[in-house]
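Reply to dn_fold:

You asked what the input looked like. This is it:
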Amino acid sequence: MEKRAGLAIFLSLLVLISFSYYSNQKLPKKEEILKRSEQIVQPTPTKEISGGQIPLSAEGSVAAPTRGLAKSSPSSKRHPLIEIPVETDLYRLVLSGDGAILKLGLKNFRREGEEFFSVISADSIFHPLEFTDWGKDISYRADKKSLYLDQENKIGKIILKGKNRDGLEITKIFTFDNNRYGFDWTIKIKNFSSQEKLVDKMAILCGSGFATEKKDASRFNVEENQISTNGEITKFRAGKVKEKRTISETNWVAQKSQYLLLFLKPFSGTNSFIYPEKKKLILGIDVPSFIIPGKGIVEKKFFFYGGPAEYEITKAEGNGVEKTVEGGLFVTLGRFILKILTFFYNIVGNWGWAIVILTIMLKILLFPLSRSSFRSISQMQKLQPYLKDLKTKYKGNTQMMNKEMMELYRKYKINPLGGCLPMLAQMPVFIAFFFMLRNAVVLRGAKFIFWVNDLSLPDTVVTIPNFPGGGINILPLLMGASMLVQQKMTATDPNQKMMAMMMPIFFTFIFYNFPSGLLVYWLLTNILSIFEQKLIGKK
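and this is what came back:
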């Protein structure tokens, strides 16, 4: 029975880790959607219907010095060198002179030594809200050089205006809110002539991935691209997309990492495109061609979000942003657990102690199941001499041996699966806790005690180049030791000694580079289980 119980733990944890790996590597198959709405596009030269720049002589106009692009860049120029900073209580953002987002850094969730939690860096391949076809060569002038918002000045706008050779005036209006990560973005195109004008190939980027530090490059920090089409979400990963794809009837597009999210939603019908570039995926929307009547104005409205990939924050933004982080049963249960964790954090003011309190609370709630499991294991240990005699007596007669074993179980009123089932019943909670801690941006930069300086990173105390895991991590070693103690307390059959030794070593290796927040939870769970076993054993 001890062997079965140990095997149940082993298989359950293996399922947990395998599911985590699967969710980070395996893409959902949406071939039916792609067959309906996808058109494979081969890169071809494009012809601009209306474009080209007109130098603006008005005071305060934005000059358009350019610098070269890599050969594969979507434009023959980069952005004007002018930068327009926008700062709120939540983030600092820098717009280029033509309205692309050059930099974006969050003020919350920072690690020690960080000025901002970087979402978008200036050295990104391409930048959000960058035009790649129509309108890419227009010079703009800004209505202000910077914008700073706070609780007294909550709403503010940046307005860029420019003209092209066809006499169209393009106005980009950015409306920022001090209490939101997202902002509204409006493009107005005014036709001053009496003749109608065609606007063709207006392609706008959502992003080209995130600025990932080396210490953030864990197995959990996998970038995912999402395209919503008719309510269906198709997901893409780098390495899976080999050529450019254009998908019609797009509701929104998004790029998501472990902690961060970029989201672009048009409020009129658009297509979307995605293609590989330098081990990244470039994602954006493609506005269908439209006519501007003589003396007419056409408006295109959008919503852009750049911030934490956290459900409650994204839900508060509206516009369906939260759909990018919705998940299955375990993720939903994990969000509920995070609310409880946040409740404890608001009391103690430390995320590490909040994890400790929540772990103890879960152990108390699940104690009846644990007691049932440990009692069943204890009863099975007492039957081991009898079971061993039966195996010897009926060696070679498996049918008779099994019959006598079942009679023995009935006589002593023991369920042979009694030790496994209660543990398996607890696994949904453990798995949900795992997923919650894995993606909880609130743990980024959160200190605990002693050497644990960041609950979102391994607790490395000595860095060793080329060493597995990057150095000496204490918590996974303590976790492995606690598992070894557990195995020795439950295993009585000499045949199980090898398994009792291998499981702790195996899980120490698997968990070695996990975030310390997860290890605090798992180590404390093991320690509490050891005390449970001793307490139940005394009774």
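Confidence is low (pLDDT under 50) at residues 1-11, 19-77.
Hope that clears it up.
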